[in-house]
Design goal:
Belongs to the LysR transcriptional regulatory family. By secondary structure, this protein is α/β, with parallel strands linked by helices. It is built from eleven helices and eleven strands. It is rod-shaped, with a radius of gyration of 35 Å.
Length: 308
């Protein structure tokens, strides 16, 4: 007995009428009656009492009805599962966006990723570069936006015309002498921080060498650096926009520019798709001419300034 026959028998139970059940089943009364007779013959007992008023369940039929209903429920669940398995399974693509970059940039990145990878269910998170790097290594993230030099552990693609502008910042006045600045507490980037190489260039730009007596503390994030500069009356490296937003003075005659890169931790993603992602243009970006300065350690002109 197949599931279709079971459904037809349950319609007889629900309607109490052979003709009404036949109509719902898109069968003739004779065809449905033949199905019922065949089932009762297989079981060896009657399921229904026939009368002029219709069909009612026998005691055996009443005991079988719950089991017939369970079989139909299980059959429907099986059919739904089979249908779901026939469809291509949508995979999840985990992407770590970067909080150092502006909200507008991240929004455009989200739109771009949705357009380029429609076959994936996208899962986004926001953090700074060091945490994003950890997500690639330890949390099986597929893509991450990183700042700074390429990572040897992962394939990376530079995003054209997108850079972070790094400056030295402190709580004093912009015209403070180098002597006053040299006495400040140094908030130095941790070695693995993307600003670490910039800090060495920053020292070369005018603060000189410091011995073991120099007061310093290490920071692993821009958010922490901003807090320590304020709390300790310190001096450290942050993005220019973060310094301005937090009311910090900027060390004169120094800027460094760090690349923004898309790090890839999924070999299944095609190279063309990835390049479509990084070919992102900020339509409302500000065009700036960047003049060379005596202590500036870059010769590039910046086409788009990243705001934090």
């Amino acid at each position: 007995m197949d599931s279709r026959t079971l459904r037809n028998l349950m319609r007889i139970v629900q309607t109490g009428s052979l003709s009404a059940a036949a109509e719902h089943s898109c069968l003739t009364v004779q065809a449905l009656a033949a199905q019922l007779n065949k089932v009762e013959e297989q079981f060896g007992f009657r399921l229904f009492r026939r009368s002029n008023k219709g069909l009612t369940l026998t005691s055996q039929g009443s005991e079988l009805t719950p089991f017939m209903d369970q079989v139909l429920v299980a059959t429907r669940q099986l059919e739904e599962k089979v249908a779901a398995l026939k469809k291509p399974r949508q995979r999840t693509l985990k992407v770590a966006l970067n909080t150092t970059l502006p909200a507008e940039f991240n929004r455009r990145m989200i739109d771009r990723l949705i357009a380029v990878f429609p076959q994936y269910q996208l899962e986004f998170s926001y953090a700074e570069s060091m945490e994003n790097l950890s997500k690639l290594k330890n949390e099986d993230f597929d893509l991450a936006i990183l700042i700074g030099a390429p990572q040897s552990s992962f394939s990376t693609i530079a995003m054209p015309d997108v850079q972070v502008r790094v400056v030295g910042a402190h709580c004093g006045d912009e015209d403070d002498s180098l002597g006053l600045l040299g006495d400040k507490f140094q908030v130095r980037p941790a070695e693995e921080c993307p600003y670490s190489h910039s800090f060495l260039r920053f020292l070369d730009a005018g603060l000189g060498e410091y011995g073991t007596s120099q007061r310093m503390v290490y920071s692993c994030s821009e958010t922490l650096t901003l807090s320590l500069i304020t709390q300790l009356d310190g001096l450290g490296l942050v993005s220019r926009e973060a310094a301005l937003r937090n009311g910090l003075a900027i060390f004169p005659d120094f800027e460094d520019f760090l690349e923004v890169r898309l790090a890839v931790n999924n070999p299944e993603l095609s190279g063309q798709s990835l390049h479509d992602v990084v070919d992102l243009r900020l339509q409302e970006r500000t065009e700036r001419d960047v003049r060379r300065r005596a202590h500036r350690h870059t010769e590039k002109q910046v086409a788009a300034e990243i705001r934090t």
